[in-house]
């Protein structure tokens, strides 16, 4: 997909105990750009779909320790997928503190980010500061708003309508959020495109991925802390991923119809 050579894996990138990254993935560690990031206590999270039984570090922002980031492994799936789309337009719905956006941008995409938290000046400054510290602020467009309306407004209409090659959906996990995100994004995806979902352990989020399967897209599931998945079409392919062999993985019933890894 990309004509830009991918960087070689960094052999000296190491992670704290409790982190897992699929061994085939190129590694990166932008932790210094997130000074408030810490390993959280999963007992602080009340969301019923948090997979506390997976013994991987659950990262949070110290200022709000009840909401987690994507895991280290999940962040690297995003980074390695983005490497396939270097120079192409990407969209992220839901960025929280910018951890996932940072990994996408470091992969070389031109990233639009939509999240209502960006309406709050403290969030926007924190996210901007982190992206600047990681050296990627110039390739990220931060938009305060909520999907699906903000996506429609950003895309515009007519022959100049904006489309994206890579879309990461990690927004409103309550009904009907994931289906609305999927429905607004599907016609705005390029012919060669990939859609990535996080938190597929939730059946509500799972319906978003199922929407794309029903539309004829190919799908794949990744066994990660919160389960990630992709829908893709055209001349693109998912990254390979090898789940942590130390974990006894289970696949929820609502995801059984999708190919695994």
Short characterization:
The chain is of the alpha/beta class and about 260 residues long. It has six helices and ten strands. The chain has a single domain (about 70-255), classed as Rossmann fold (3-Layer(aba) Sandwich), CATH 3.40.50.
What does this protein look like?
This protein is an alpha/beta fold and about 260 residues long. The chain has one domain (about 70-255): Rossmann fold (3-Layer(aba) Sandwich). About 25% of the residues lie in helices and about 20% in strands. The protein has 6 helices and 10 strands; from the N terminus they run βββαβαβαβαβαβαββ. The strands form 2 sheets. The chain has a 7-stranded mixed sheet, sandwiched between helices. Strands 1-2-3 form a 3-stranded antiparallel sheet, with no helix packed on it. A hairpin with a 5-residue loop joins strand 9 (about 220) and strand 10. The protein is globular, with a radius of gyration of 17 Å. It starts with about 35 loop residues before the first strand and ends in a 28-residue tail after the last strand. Residues about 1-10 have low confidence and may be disordered.
Shape: globular
Strand portion: 15-25%
**How confident overall, as mean pLDDT?**
95
* Uncertain parts: 2-10
The termini sit apart by: 20 Å
Q: Helix content range of the residues, please?
A: 10-25%
Overall number of structural domains: 1
Computed structural class:
alpha/beta
Number of strands: 10
Largest sheet: 7 strands, mixed
Q: What does the oligomeric state look like here?
A: single chain
The CATH homologous superfamily corresponds to Vaccinia Virus protein VP39
> SSE string, helix = H, strand = E?
EEEHEHEHEHEHEHEE
Overall radius of gyration: 17 Å
Number of helices: 6
Strand neighbour order, sheet with most strands: 6-5-4-7-8-10-9
The CATH topology label is Rossmann fold
């Amino acid at each position: 997909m990309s004509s830009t050579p991918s960087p070689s894996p960094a052999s000296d990138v190491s992670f704290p105990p409790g982190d897992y990254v699929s061994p085939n993935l190129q590694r990166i560690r932008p932790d210094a750009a997130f000074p408030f990031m810490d390993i959280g206590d999963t007992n602080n999270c009340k969301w019923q779909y948090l997979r506390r039984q997976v013994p991987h570090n659950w990262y949070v922002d110290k200022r709000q320790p009840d909401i987690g980031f994507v895991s280290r492994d999940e962040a690297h799936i995003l980074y390695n997928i983005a490497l396939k789309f270097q120079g192409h337009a990407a969209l992220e719905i839901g960025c929280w503190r910018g951890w996932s956006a940072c990994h996408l941008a470091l992969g070389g995409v031109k990233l639009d980010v939509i999240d209502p938290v960006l309406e709050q000046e403290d969030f926007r400054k924190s996210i901007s500061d982190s992206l600047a510290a990681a050296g990627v602020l110039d390739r990220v467009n931060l938009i305060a708003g909520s999907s699906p309306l903000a996506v429609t407004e950003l895309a515009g209409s007519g022959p100049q309508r904006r489309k994206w090659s890579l879309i990461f959906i990690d927004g409103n996990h309550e009904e009907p959020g994931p289906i609305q995100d999927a429905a607004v994004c599907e016609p705005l995806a390029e012919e060669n495109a990939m859609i990535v979902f996080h938190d597929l352990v939730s059946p509500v989020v799972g319906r978003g991925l199922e929407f794309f399967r029903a539309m004829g897209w190919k799908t794949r599931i990744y066994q990660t802390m919160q389960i990630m998945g992709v829908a893709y079409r055209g001349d693109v392919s998912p990254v390979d991923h090898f789940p942590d062999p130390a974990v006894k993985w289970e696949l929820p019933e609502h995801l059984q119809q999708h190919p695994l890894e």
